[in-house]
Amino acid sequence: MSGSRELILGRVRRALADVPEDETPYEQAVPRDYGERHGERTPAETVDLLAENLADYRAIVHRTNAPGLPSVLAGLLAARGARTVLVPAGLPSHWLTGVEQVADRAESTPYELDRVDSVVTGCAVAIAETGTLVLDGSPDQGRPRITLVPDHHICVVRVPDQVVSSVPQALRRLTPTRPMTWISGPSATSDIELERVEGVHGPRTLEVVLMSEA
User: Where is the LUD domain (predicted)?
Assistant: First the structure.
């Protein structure tokens, strides 16, 4: 154990030395009775709100059903001129046809990932009120880095099952020990003069396909 870590843990132990053993645990002592969402919405209205807020963040939103998804993805990749597509191991095989698929491998270098034209993933949950997509490293989403290096990310959201209204509702669905990436629009930042620059620490272009499984 490093000296710095031992120093920090020692301070924590000293700070907790006078805490009674029967004191209420933190997770029980802090009330969690705040509202979990703003207003009442039907599932369809929640999906519409998600689409609206995604667009506000400059994501490009598309809608389709499950049978139409392969042709939508093929059209988006063709319009982009994408010849190579990074694919997580658990992405349904029938989603992509007619493109060179690059496997998500642990040994891939950042330079190799940067040469890939596009990446296609699923998601764990999408939050309507904030226009946020959450990826948690599940088989259809792959390692976190695969959505941070390529310049073009297509994320497929199953609606309405993967869409919730609020962040608290999303947290109930997520496992805190998983590697999560929270995405609200394409990567962007602003300089001191508030000039927006996209693609600094993630994809310059984010396309979201809302796929109805009905």
Answer: 111-211
